[in-house]
Fold this sequence. Notes:
Distance between the termini: 16 Å
Structural class: mainly beta
Largest sheet: 8 strands, antiparallel
Number of helices: 4
Mean pLDDT: 84
Radius of gyration: 32 Å
Number of strands: 58
Strand content: 35-45%
Shape: flat
Amino acid sequence: MPRYRTYGGAEDGPAEDGDAGFVGVDERRDPRQLPAGLAARAVNKVFDGGVAETRRGIQTVRWGAELTVNFPIQFPPHRDLLDLFNANPDCFAELSFRVYGGTTLQLLCPAPQSWHAVWIEWDGAAYSLAVDQSGMASSDWVYADYDEATANFRLLNDTTLQVLCPATGLWHSIWIELLGGVALLAVDQVGMSGSAPSGWWNYLLLGDKTLQLMCPATLRYHSLWVEKLGGVYHLAIDATGNEEPNGFAFDQQAGFGKVYGELVFSDPNRQEGALLATRYGVIRLAENQKPQYIYPPGAERIDGRVVMVQAFDRVIMFRGAGKVPLVWNPAQDFETGLRAFETIEQTDSGDGTEAIPPSDEACLLGNRLYVALGRDQVAISDVLDYTRYDSTLAVFRINAGSDDAIVRLFAFNETTLLVFKDQSIHVVEGLYGEDLATTARQYVLSGEYGAVARGAVVQVGKDVFFLSERGVDSIGQALDNRLQAGAKPLSDPIKPVIDRINWAYAKTSGDQAGAVMEYHDNKLFLAVPLDGATFNNALLVFNFTTGAWEGYWTGEWMDVRGFVRTQSGGRRALFIVTGDAHADRKAHGALMKVGEGESDFCYDEEAEIEDELVTRGYLGAELEDKRFQRAKADVSTWRPVGNVFARLDGVAEEVRLSGPITRDRKRYTVWGHGLYDESNAGDNHGDPFREDYSVDLSTPIALGSGVNPMAEQRFSLSWKLNRVGQFCQIRFSSTQGRMTVRAVKVEALPGPRGYGGKS
């Protein structure tokens, strides 16, 4: 039917609207009001070079992990075995072996369920394996510090399971022996008082739950348990065994458990490493080096949130009220071993100064340590001396008498301190010289809002960005060289996402770290809990190059406890330190590199990246209803599985434009071309017109003159719409691989006069 925009005119062609490229996201404004280049929504997208592409992967790094059995760290073996299971006992409800009181090896009897201790017994002539007959309930499980003098089990050189004979004090190895075709439990009859090397791994943990021993004759692994037969408990063994450690691999890696704090430390010799505070000590991680532990003094444990500050060539650990701060003075060569943390000893006591006080917040500025005291005081150390301060002259109050508390002390420059409280922001400037009382000036920057989380404050050039209850706010330097707060939050374009934050868990409170923020590669990353989550399950990303938000990222193992930026592959990279929201220990306290690969990896487990892009509302030339006829898109893909939808302005008016978008790496887009041989026998991987250039890693491939397995194939998509509405949005959804959206266009004609329907 002919359509005319003017009376008596010729038939008009369809009105066109679309985007020739994309720069970011604006979720606040109505989709019809967005200018060209802005999308209405994006999840797991990156906007680079004018296109919207799937973000790169977030993957654990092997140098930042602990081998769960092979223990390549400086912990005594027994500590590691305990740490493997005592961080969260609920994660191991089906465990069939345990360490009772940190000393006694026990096995589980499935029926009736009870725990029985195992030891070596001497009858005056021979040694044998023994088991207690009474057992104990699981409710009696107590975690105690390991006492090597009274322990009755150990791991010989991390490889051989041994138990102690109380009568003789000798250690005896346990293994599986094949006698007459039957697998039996065996014990060495000689025993040993010291230690000796072992030639193979002869124990493992099946599925992290079941204790197994190896039979040296057959190299098969056999499970152990306690069995009740005829009213008597016996040690039992499966007689078949397994040729492979199918439940647990010795090179399987896992996170370090609960993390209480993180810091990137660099010594005067430019030796850099990430420090993670865990229960038994601080782990130093660096590329191409084994993880190393820095222990607290004595038998102390880290059991709450800590703040680590590099002060000169030392690391100061603040552990909260009532706990004396600790200091680590590292060895100058990390390869020769690390010293332990020590309690800070005040220098020159007796001159009226006091030891640096306990706190949960501090920073270094101008060769002095600034330490938060309570809700509204800040103590200042002596110059070049972190051990002491003058409690009379070197303490100042911030907004005294108010009900808001200090959240973060932040060094803006060498002479200016920003004090973020939870309801206000204060500036202390002129911090130089010996007598700060004569040079320092304090003023209120904002009395309307403050920072909600200690870790959600970061400096970018001359601006400081932080998370307030308004969203992402900023502080900048005005023309008169004074600091001023921004009138409108930077996060205003994504206010609908900000409104989804679970603020109770975004705040720093007690041991709860809350939201965290970092700047890397010209982007601002903010990790927050969305939609009722109790942990940071989403990354909000702002791109300073485009000046726009990229939406937010999420994923299978997205649980951001903190960020570290350290060296990787010759350049500085961004890493996520995961929290303890996931029961799977592999994702508990792991180090994950951002922007690595085409999917997310948690050691040996892969998760595809699911992404989404919703365009702005395309109006054409008129506000009135119109019939949208066609939609087109310019895309490029890599191993994709995706869908495209058209979304009209009515309620729930979304229609699928196509079936799943998939591409076959064997097929070409030109007529009459044969199938591609995935072995690349013809050395033609890079030939044009193939649908997909991904590589199946399970198939051997000849590299020939070169293979680019990450190449994306570009093509156009076109659909018939025949739908009526004021505006139309196109939604791209992908569940596998990569989908890059380069351009979108829709065509529409004015709706018929008197038209009352929508289809």
